[in-house]
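Internal ticket - ligand job 156, methionine sulfoxide:
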Amino acid sequence: MLTQKKINYDLLAKTIFALTEAETDEVSLMATIVCEVYHSDDRFNWTGFYRVTGPEMLKIGPYQGAHGCLQIPFSRGVCGAAARTQRTQLVNDVDAFKGHIACSSSTRSELVLPVWNACGELIAVFDIDSDQPHAFIEEDSTEIARILKDVFMSNF
Ligand code: SME
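stdout (structure tokens):
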């Protein structure tokens, strides 16, 4: 049985903004976001950041859920596609995404968003996985993008 969306994005945003107010440390901000998003909706069974650590390279940052792979080049996976294109990747069926990296065999759908800092530089991608197919809707993409923008582009 598929779990219905139960997330309240206004409450999630208010909670994250209150917890991160005036914080500028990126790791602290990421750790708070992965925790709050992970616990906000039963559809999500993995949340994490992959940070830009060098040319065309992502490395794992704060996450919640089972272990994630440590490094992802921009050329690979859904995360690499989000970093390479700097566009959100909403994947309804990971088996249909060429080059999907399966850190967990239970993942069925995925949402990955690019994360920029206040200077407009790509600093990371934010990855949310679900063990349900078609788990994500456009609202998830727009609301989470809004939170990421407000935290990483205005806390500084
Ligand atoms: N599925 C991602 C890799 C990260 S694991 O899901 C945590 C991808 O294809 O880039």
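Auto-summary: The chain has one domain: 9-154. The pocket of methionine sulfoxide is lined by residues 46, 48, 68-69, 72, 77-80, 100-101, 103, 107, 110, 127, 129 (CB under 6 Å).
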